[in-house]
Amino acid sequence: MNRSKSEEQRFTEPDAKRIKFSTLGAALIAMAGICVVTIVDYTTGGKVGLSPFYIAVISFVTWWAGLYWGIAMASLATLGWFAAIVPWRQPHEWFVEGINAGMRSIIFIAFAFLVARIRRDQQRLERLNIVLKGAIARESSNARTDVLTGLLNRRGFQEQVEREIARCMRQSAPLSVGYLDIDNFKRINDSKGHEWGDACLCEVASALVSMLRPSDVSARLGGDEFAMLLPMTDLAAAEQVAGRLHTVMQSKLRDYGDADLGISLGVVSFNTPPSTVSELFRQADATMYRAKQAGKGRVIVAQGQEALVE
Q1: Spatial separation of the C-alpha atoms in residues 71 and 52, rounded to whole Å
Q2: Burial class (CB in 10 A: 0-12, 13-18, 19+), 59
Q3: CB atoms inside a 10 Å sphere around CB 21
Q4: In the sheet that 299-303 helps form, which strands lie side by side, from edge to edge?
Q5: Residue 97: which residues within 8 A CB-CB, separation 6 or more?
Q6: Which segment, 22-31, 235-244, 293-302, is predicted with the most confidence on average?
Q7: Which residues pair with 218 in a beta bridge?
Q8: Segment 298-302 long-range contacts (CB within 8 Å, at least 24 positions apart)
Q9: Residue partners of 179: CB distance under 8 A and separation at least 6
């Protein structure tokens, strides 16, 4: 709730100077408008009904400057109308015109209140819309983010891969994708509890983020399985990245005692990526399982299609 409130304030509270100048500008325009209408009223002797023009001016200043300015303009409009009409009336008619002025004043002020209410409701709707957009954006982000590690989840990773495949195909650029799995991860949860297991997963996620480039993408696909996307990376560069990453992660996982943890890492590199994400995932997954079947704690880097060769 506090987060929503701070977002609402951040996006909807205008700058104080802007409010001041817009209010002053609206008030000056309104006063000039009332003066013009009053002059016309005086010129015609009140024979032409100009009340709609007074109301238009009052509505304008109320909308842009607020209710108090609207009431002030309503009072000024009433005085202006009365001052324009009285010189054309006989003294015995002034009392009647005074009553008419009072009735006009009520109508003008009522319009000011009505416009202020409409403006307030509109502003509330705008604030609500901003808050809802922020909530929707957060929910959309959460739907694509792994809660524990902060990495992308499978859905978010798949969307990134789809975009990168399209870009690499347009540019005829290489693309590499890696799958990694923590060997013997179940031993941590069984022997030391899920808190240690969660810490281990966060350790791997942190290593991925710190060792990859800002343009690379890392994700937790589920359980103890992670993935990385390496745009503009050919087979030779992918081998170097995989080797460094595997060395660092193996070192970090030694801190988890006698669980004998390790990393099985499979990376597949494409000069021209497959047209579908499922095919790319299939080859990356096959490469990772080849590493596990080779004895765990291994790295296998393969060229596209070769990943499927046993």
Answers
A1: 16
A2: buried
A3: 11
A4: 217-222, 225-231, 175-183, 262-270, 299-303
A5: 82, 85, 86, 89
A6: 235-244
A7: 228
A8: 298/264, 298/265, 299/242, 299/243, 299/246, 299/265, 299/266, 299/267, 300/265, 300/266, 300/267, 301/235, 301/238, 301/239, 301/242, 301/266, 301/267, 301/268, 301/269, 302/266, 302/267, 302/268, 302/269
A9: 221, 225, 226, 227, 265, 266, 267, 284, 285, 287, 288
Q: Are strands 217-222 and 299-303 parallel, antiparallel or unpaired?
A: unpaired
Q: How confident is the model at residue 225 (pLDDT cuts 50, 70, 90)?
A: very high
Q: Give mean pLDDT, residues 30-36.
A: 76
Question: What per-residue confidence (pLDDT) applies to 31?
Answer: 75
Work out the mean pLDDT of the chain and round it to a whole number: 81
Side chain identity at residue 216, one-letter code: D
List the catalytic residue out of 146, 181, 224, 285: 224
Q: What gap in Å lies between CA 57 and CA 93, rounded to an integer?
A: 28
The pairing of beta strand 299-303 with beta strand 225-231: unpaired
Tokens at 235, concatenated: 């087979």
- Contact between 70 and 61 under an 8 Å Cβ cutoff? The reply is yes
Task: Let me know if 224 is a catalytic residue.
Answer: yes
H runs (alpha helix) in the chain? 2-12, 16-44, 51-65, 67-85, 94-142, 154-171, 185-192, 194-211, 235-253, 277-293
| Ranges 62-71, 128-137, 212-221, most confident | 212-221
Of 38, 83, 44, 85, nearest in space to 57 by CA? 38
Query: How is residue 187 written in tokens?
Result: 């031993």
The span from the CA of 216 to the CA of 178, in Å, is 11
Do 307 and 177 contact (CB within 8 A), yes or no? no
